[in-house]
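Narrative of activities, Objective 1.

The group set out to show that a structural description can be obtained from nothing but a protein's sequence at a throughput compatible with the screening campaign. Below is one input-output pair from the validation batch, recorded exactly as produced.
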Amino acid sequence: MHPHPHHETDACVEDLRTALEANGITLPSLGVDLPTFAGALPTRPLIALGNCNQATADALINALRKAADR
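Output recorded for this entry:
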């Protein structure tokens, strides 16, 4: 098994950033968790969502609830 390609993870982060922005949500700390690439195991790297304030969390909750109701 080969390690997960970094470019796929970067693309995932950018897709997530774009989807969040389309809903008026910005997660400033969104990015690739680089230490997961340093490990020897061929696992999928983690996406770091980071911290956000309560207003951003509320917007994220509302966007997810709206999507779930479709």
